[in-house]
Every structure is written in structure tokens, then in C-alpha cells.
Design goal:
333 residues, globular, mainly alpha, Serine Threonine Protein Phosphatase 5, Tetratricopeptide repeat
Length: 333
């Protein structure tokens, strides 16, 4: 039996203080309406999904209270939700160890998503002791349950030899299984495997077909690979004109940049600074350079370019960057 994480027992006891409302006089319509309204707010009369509804509505305190109640009744998804709230610091203090404890309880209660979340933490080892063997066991269970991300992650363990004996062929097979079911990270990884001939035959055309599928599914790394392949002449139809290749490459770089990929932002900054495939636009170049730098990608050449711009152009780019800064996704904290 798993050890209960610190603080969990106290939270379970909170739910024990909530008792069903007593029945009202059936002959009094007003009392019946009152009872119905009260029952609608009684956690013991609600479906556990209301905790998730409250969460996605941004009512984190109610989501937490409901999840505690349902977790105390053995609802595994509610346990997982509590873990996610601790991991993001929503309505509670940020506590990754506590999050891991909830994921473990949910995993022990057969919640597949919790198994993947716990495996991720076990592989990372930043907040709980690293255990690649246990992570592999959890991901194998997720794979057997048809969890696509779990299948992709298990495939990566085989490719890297973490928690399992390194086996490129098995890793590639798992990637293909997830990729064919639409998992974009697996599609991108399978493209890499074909481009390198790792666990599969070397096949550049096949590689870019998988990059294309992953790119269309929103994978930014694949979008960049596809853009660079188009510029090199490796991707796309053989008779594609150079003008069309550049146009398509800029399209994929823009898609990746819109998703916040700093490499794509950097490449677009260079394109706008030189008028390559796009109109020459120093402000746009400074804007994308600013985004890339904020994402951790420095570029001395672009620093020099931007510093040489007139003050009003730099200020325009900075103002645009300031306007676009918004609250982050709570799960991205």
C-alpha cells in the first residue's frame, strides 16, 4: 500500500465533516425547492466531473474542495486533479512532492493519465527520487491501455536505454504505433529516426512525410524541420519551384513562431531583416528577435541589427511585445 503523502490525510478528513442535508417536509413546495437547491451544492449529490468543470471555469478553490471530497471517496481522476493543482500551485501552495503523492495514489487506483504524469516526474528526478525502472513499468501499463503519449514515452525509453535495455527497433515500433494513431511527438521522432536510419531504414522522403504529418498536427519542431527541408530541397515535391519552397518554408516558420518556438522566431527575424521570402521590415525583425530572446535564444548579429535601428522603430517593436504579454497557462508554471 502506498504511503500517504503529507497533508493528504488531513484533506481527506475535511470531507468527513460534510454531511448530507436532512430531508425537508414533502408537503411544503417552498421547502422542496430549498432542498433541491441545497442538494445541488452538496458534494455527495454531485458527479465527480463537477470538480473538473469548476477547474476549467477558473474556480480553483471550489475545484480543490470538490476534488478533495471525491478523492476521499476513492475517485482516481479527482486524486489526479489534486496532483495537477499542487503541481501548478492553483488554490494551494506550489508543492511538487505533494503533487507526486497524489499522482501515485491515482496511479495505484488505475488512473492511466496519472501513471504517465508520475512516470514523467520519476524520469525527471527533480522533485522525487529518479526511478527509470518504475517509470518504464508505469509507461508500459499506459501503453497497454492505449495511452498515446505513454506509448511515445515508452518508445523514447527504448531508444535511449532508460529503465529498459536499449533497443532501437522496439523504440521505432512503439513510435510508429503512436505516430500512426496521431501522436505528433511520435510522428516527429519517427521522422528523425528515418532521417538518421536509426531502428529503421534510412529514408529521407519517408522522414519528411512524417515531419509533414507532425507539422500539420501542430508540432513546432517538425514545422521547423519541414521549413529547413524545403529550403534545402529535401522536402516537398521534386518539381516544386524555389519561390514556392521559400513561401512554404516561411509559412511553417510562422506557424512555429506563433506557437512560441524561439528558433522559428529567430529565423523569421533574420528573414525580415534581409527581406528573404518576406518584405523587408526592420520593426518586424526586431519584434521577432525580441520574442526569441525572451524565449532564451540570443543572437549577436540581430542584436547589432536592432541596436542600429532608429529609436522609433525599436520602440514600436518593444510596444508590440509588451502588448502581447499575457497570463500564462496555469499548467505551464
Amino acid at each position: 500500500m502506498s504511503k500517504m503523502p503529507a497533508g493528504i490525510l488531513a484533506l481527506f478528513l475535511v470531507s468527513a465533516t460534510i454531511t448530507p442535508l436532512s430531508a425537508q417536509d414533502a408537503d411544503a413546495p417552498a421547502d422542496q425547492e430549498t432542498e433541491a437547491a441545497e442538494d445541488a451544492n452538496d458534494p455527495f449529490e454531485l458527479d465527480p466531473l463537477v470538480a473538473f468543470e469548476a477547474f476549467f471555469a477558473g474556480n480553483y478553490e471550489r475545484a480543490f474542495d470538490l476534488a478533495v471530497t471525491f478523492a476521499g471517496r476513492g475517485d482516481a481522476p479527482s486524486m489526479r486533479l489534486l496532483g495537477q493543482m499542487y503541481a501548478a500551485g492553483l488554490s494551494v501552495d506550489l508543492d511538487q512532492a505533494e503533487a507526486a503523492g497524489w499522482y501515485r495514489l491515482a496511479s495505484d487506483a488505475s488512473d492511466i493519465e496519472a501513471k504517465v504524469l508520475l512516470a514523467t516526474m520519476l524520469l525527471d528526478g527533480a522533485y522525487i527520487p529518479r526511478d527509470e525502472n518504475e517509470a518504464a513499468t508505469l509507461l508500459r501499463a499506459a501503453k497497454d491501455a492505449g495511452h498515446l503519449s505513454g506509448t511515445q514515452m515508452l518508445g523514447m525509453l527504448y531508444l535511449e536505454g532508460r529503465g529498459v535495455a536499449r533497443d532501437l527497433e522496439t523504440g521505432a515500433e512503439l513510435m510508429r504505433e503512436a505516430a500512426e494513431a496521431g501522436e505528433t511527438t511520435a510522428q516527429y521522432t519517427l521522422g528523425i529516426l528515418y532521417s538518421e536510419g536509426a531502428g529503421v531504414r534510412l529514408d529521407t522522403r519517408e522522414a519528411y512525410q512524417w515531419f509533414d504529418r507532425a507539422a500539420r498536427g501542430g508540432n513546432t519542431e517538425a514545422q521547423i524541420e519541414l521549413a529547413l527541408g524545403l529550403l534545402r530541397g529535401d522536402a516537398g515535391e521534386p518539381d516544386l519551384s524555389e519561390e514556392r519552397r521559400i513561401e512554404d518554408a516561411i509559412f511553417w516558420l510562422r506557424r512555429a513562431a506563433e506557437a512560441g518556438n524561439p528558433i522559428a522566431e529567430n529565423r523569421l527575424a533574420h528573414a525580415y531583416s534581409q527581406g528573404f521570402g518576406v518584405p523587408l521590415d526592420p520593426v518586424e525583425a526586431a519584434y521577432y528577435h525580441g520574442r526569441a530572446v525572451a524565449g532564451g535564444l540570443a543572437d549577436a548579429r540581430l542584436d547589432t541589427f536592432v541596436s542600429g535601428l532608429p529609436a522609433e522603430q525599436r520602440e514600436e517593436a518593444q510596444a508590440r511585445l509588451a502588448r502581447e504579454r499575457g497570463p500564462a497557462n496555469p499548467f505551464d508554471r
